[in-house]
Automatic annotation (TrEMBL):
Keywords carried by this UniProt record: Flavoprotein, FMN, Monooxygenase, Oxidoreductase
CDD domains cross-referenced by the UniProt entry: Nitrilotriacetate_monoxgenase (cd01095)
Protein name, as recorded: FMN-dependent oxidoreductase, nitrilotriacetate monooxygenase family
Family: Belongs to the NtaA/SnaA/DszA monooxygenase family.
Residues that coordinate or bind FMN: 95, 149, 220
Superkingdom of the organism of origin: Bacteria
Protein species of origin: Rhodococcoides kyotonense
Oxidoreductase keyword on record: yes
InterPro entries per UniProt: Diverse_substr_monoxygenases, Luciferase-like_dom, Luciferase-like_sf, NTA_MOA
One family name in Pfam for this protein: Bac_luciferase
Residue ranges of every copy of the Luciferase-like domain listed in the record: 29-389
């Protein structure tokens, strides 16, 4: 049996409680040099792709923009298109909302990115029912929660129809110039459904991958079904065994029930890292970073999203609030996804942790609001990554750092060579497209040939 290879993605965080934006070495969050450095570093480390999240609105607390939030973020597709010019092999993945975009326009943009990058485009499909964000896009502001996956599913179906509208029978390739030549039916499409009713001719010829790689995240049963039916890779929220392995088995089984090969959907949790010359040094460095990340104000803001109350009169160095959450009030935090299934259960768990560990409010947040970093010496981190993937906790990781954009350099310089020595990571790129490098089944994107125009 061949050695299981680790898939690596690199994410670039914005200004939030995970990013040390105050650090003297921290770079700009919007300057192109930040994106370029991270992408070039990831490619130097033979990462599969570079990933950008999407911020469609500046988040607010009690009607005021967060003073700790992202203040400005360039358009995702524009940044990725720019990075296509300064990288050669790295996949370029962006989060684009299926609720607040239209299939024809987005399909054109993604197909164009796939052409510009020679087959390295990926789309992380997300949905939204958030009226606060939606008011930037439409009157009334939002799509009903029950319809978000309905729209996303039909959106993806239409996008695939558009990408596939340039079939082999529609395209000729000039043997002398290699240029695509269109026949009369090239790009023809028509779709009539509950969400979309469009027809015409798609303007972008079939791209190198045929279709961009599709990424998705889904934890609920509905989300898991959608991802297992449609995604090439899914973001996992689980960074520890055995729950990660259970999620892995469940998604692979759902994919098989959809008639797909289990190996054609990849499972990828996100992870940060902290390195040290010794394990003790790495652990101490990690605790120092966490104390810097979670200021008293940050701790209160994170808890306000759960309590849905103004907690500014509470002492971050004192106990957790004794008041109960108020789920029926207008959200005090807007524009940030609420990831907790039940406010009361979450509060009960936080109180139990505080009591058991004798922690104050800020210490509870430091302890509980964490993505699960990989901490240790470079050899220990490489071993943890390799072991996690080998034991089917995932197919790889999406790696980020608290220090933008320089933090990833340490991982590439110190951990990547050890993964390569273990045989868990390639020493060079083997494919010509992102789909190739991820080990996904190729699409049939061959075209007929012609000797002349």
């Amino acid at each position: 049996m061949s050695r299981k290879q680790v898939i690596l993605g690199a994410y670039l965080g914005g200004v939030n409680h995970h990013t040390a934006w105050w650090h003297p070495r921290a770079g700009s969050q919007i300057d192109f040099s930040t994106f370029e450095h991270t992408a070039r570093t990831a490619e130097r480390g033979k990462f599969d792709f570079f990933f950008l999240a999407e911020g469609l609105a500046l988040r607010e607390r009690a009607g005021q923009v967060f003073d700790q939030d992202i203040i400005g973020r360039p358009d995702t597709l524009t940044v990725l298109a720019s990075l296509a010019a300064v990288t050669d092999h790295l996949g370029l993945a962006g989060t684009i909302n299926a609720t607040f975009n239209e299939p024809y326009e987005l399909a054109r943009q993604l197909a164009s990115l796939d052409h510009l990058s020679d087959g390295r485009a990926a789309w992380n499909v997300v949905t939204s029912f958030d009226a606060f964000t939606g008011r930037n896009f439409r009157r009334g502001g939002f799509l009903d929660r029950s319809q978000r996956y309905e729209r996303a599913g039909e959106f993806l179906d239409v996008a695939r129809q558009l990408w596939d509208s340039w079939g082999r029978s529609d395209i000729l390739a000039d043997k002398n110039t290699g240029e695509f030549l269109a026949r009369g039916s090239a790009g023809e499409f028509a779709h009539a459904g509950a969400q979309f009713d469009i027809d015409g001719h798609f303007t972008v010829p079939r791209s190198p991958q045929g279709r961009p790689v599709i990424l998705q995240a889904g934890v609920s049963p509905q989300g898991r079904d959608f991802a297992s039916a449609n995604a090439d890779a899914i973001f996992s929220p689980y960074g520890k065994l055995p729950e990660a392995a259970e999620f892995y088995r469940d998604i692979k089984a759902r994919a098989a029930r959809q008639g797909r090969r289990a190996e054609d959907i990849k499972i990828l949790p996100s992870a940060s890292f902290v390195l040290g010359d010794t394990e003790a040094e790495a652990v101490e460095k990690y605790h120092e970073v966490r104390r810097e990340q979670v200021t008293g104000q940050t701790a209160l803001i994170l808890l306000e999203q759960i309590w849905n109350r103004d907690l500014s009169d509470h002492d971050p160095e004192g106990p957790l609030p004794t008041v109960e959450p108020d789920p029926d009030a207008h959200p005090i935090i807007e524009g940030k996804a609420f990831v907790y299934q039940d406010r009361f259960d979450t509060v009960a768990n936080l109180r139990a942790v505080a009591e058991a560990k004798k922690l104050n409010l800020r210490e509870v947040v430091i302890d509980q609001f964490e993505r699960g970093p990989i901490v240790g010496t470079p050899a220990q981190v490489a071993e943890k990554i390799d072991s996690f993937v080998s034991n089917d906790g995932s197919d790889g990781f999406i790696i980020g750092s608290h220090l933008v954009p320089w933090g990833l350099d340490e991982f590439v310089d110190d951990v990547v060579p050890l993964l390569q020595e273990r045989g868990a990571l390639r020493s060079d790129y083997t494919g010509t497209t992102l789909r190739d490098n991820l080990g996904l089944a190729p699409l049939d994107d061959r075209v007929d040939s012609a000797t002349s125009r």
